[in-house]
Input
Amino acid sequence: MERSLEYPVDYWKEYLNENYPLNFKEAMNLVGELELPSLMKLANHLRSKQVGDTVSYAVSYNINYSNYCTASCPICAFYVPMAMKGKTDRGYELSIEQVKAELSKAKENEATEVHIVGGFNADLPIEYYEKVFSTVKEYLPDVTLKALTIPEIDFIARTTGNSLKEVVERFHQAGMDAHTGGGAEIFDPSVRKLMTTPQKISGEEWLEDAKIIHGMGIPGNSTMTYGHLEKLEHIVDHIIRLRDNQREVPGFLSFIPLKFSPDNTPLQKSGRVKLPASGELDLKVIALARILGGQDLKNISVYWVAIGKEMAQIALNGGGSDLVGTAFSEKIFGATDRTEGASIEELNDLVRQIGRVPAQRDTFYRIKRYA
Output
């Protein structure tokens, strides 16, 4: 195909029609040729073609069952080291009664989804999680339970002496409908070792675990944490690996890029990361996600909690198609002083202001109602 230097976006539209999915070299060539406005224009074209003008979100309530953690990752401001248990009042483990109190708040907020994650707490037996999950289903039988990151599930399997499949089966029977997709961070091992600790599984293990869990019929989201120590080629590599994993064993419901918030984290305290990533990188990540993976990961989510509402609006016009959720009671980003909230009405207005159509969805990206 003859390249038109005058119209590079049109060239890449045609190239993608004939050559999707792009490999790493092709993707880096695209990044090197297109400036951000052109990337966003291409991504917005693909978004319109792949998913239309609807912008979806879930009414989600977050429950963080414990902040004690053996991993103590440098990117995290939420955890309290397990070694500090009993020595500080900053750590906690929710009792079942406290879980029930959280579920009452979820009901008040008319949540359709309960999102449960926590730290790598070595003191909690597998029965604790089963009781939490069954309590969710007992008190809110119509709510979808999206529980645990893939590294959490793997950690629970390792510390309780069960296989990954055994743990997933037991959790599914207790009420878990989907996994959260968290803990992917950045797959490249040279970067991953600087932002995590050996207690957290490798990127390759994360991908293999995802295939096992998806093969059992339990879907979930996929994520990437960016804006810390990585370079653009690591972001491209991460998106491509997720896309290829999806093509091999489908099960990812969406892709959610998570902007690193450095406040109160060890990475910030050590001086290795001083400020959040630029808005330019936020927009580039969403655009690349749509361009490199949009045919296989059609729901490209813009996490407004991390990037802010105004930037989220811009990202929705550059490849994004989903706002993740209302995130009631979110504490992980809250530990980094990102405490902005949003009501259902605010999310609807945010979408309408950019000429798109807001819609509430369920966990599985089925539209429940248009606003």
